[in-house]
Design a protein that fits this description.
DNA-binding
Amino acid sequence: MAKDLLGKVLVRRLGATSLEGLIVETEAYRGYDDAASHAYRGPTLRNQVMFGEPGHAYVYFTYGMHYCLNFTTEPAGQAGAVLLRAVQPVKGIVEMKKRRGTERVKDLSNGPAKLTQAFAVTKALNGHDLTLGERLYVTEPFHPEPFSISAGTRIGIKAGGEKPWRFFISDNPFVSKR
DNA sequence: TGTGTGATAGTCT
DNA sequence: GACTATCACACAT
């Protein structure tokens, strides 16, 4: 799923305006066998969405000030999710600049917490059904372009750092730097 | 382009 | 009470 999401378009609808970004970087997280996963130690109030139906948004708050956006991937009862680490802004760039407080397009969404800020994703969307096609969902790109996928180790985690479950579009300038 | 560090609050032990 | 799936800024190179 993490690889399949690369090259797809993240869509955020806010009333009349819509924000769109090409997904360029993701990370895969599993459950009981993945020490880096929130679900590793079993269900809690915070991670319960990871154990629910697939195709839903798992949004969590971290580092005291940041939100991160994940998509659940496994059947109910099994934990698994894909973290969206970076997107390439496609539509609504003026709106994103306003939300991010910067004019630099490269800094709008090249990081997991940056893209949630640019796309106005907060805890209010935790558990949101992506298959409804409302407020937050994924579509095919209007002008698909060929790309190749690179893999590496996941970023910012302690345990489970050896698994190469971070995927990104090769040579895309909007992939996060760290 | 890279390194160091402070900000800040929810979650789990 | 420790830890965290991060970011922005200052400063060095």
